[in-house]
Design a protein that fits this description.
The chain is mostly beta strands. It has one domain. The protein has a five-stranded mixed β-sheet, with no helix packed on it.
């Protein structure tokens, strides 16, 4: 897999969250931990795997129309990360993914 470029630095790409796998381990350990969001890109309909910073307390106010800011996408990322997913969960070969936090825009 290779990281996906989905949005310019100063703009927002809209996604809908299909599944959310929060980190279940305590943040701040020696492991690189992440929350995993399985998303659908608004413009293309493609599935996108978003690895977000470890935050065991993350809440999701809603799951539609969530923003990924271009400035939040990490250009350097760890070689290995730990996520809390079911044993049978598989990210398909060639899948699109990024390392970024999500932004919930509330009116």
């Amino acid at each position: 897999m290779k990281p996906e470029t989905i949005v310019a630095q100063d703009s927002c790409s809209i996604v809908d969250i299909i599944e959310y796998f929060p980190n279940k381990e305590k943040c701040g350990t020696s492991k690189q931990l992440a929350n995993l969001y399985v998303c659908k890109e608004d413009l293309t309909g493609d599935t996108l795997y978003v690895f977000a910073d470890c935050d065991a307390e993350r809440s999701m106010p809603f799951d539609k129309g969530v923003c990924i800011m271009g400035n939040d996408i990490k250009r350097k990322f760890p070689k290995e990360i730990v996520v809390s997913v079911p044993d049978d969960f598989v990210i398909p070969k060639g899948a699109k993914y990024i390392f970024s936090n999500l932004l919930w825009l509330v009116d």
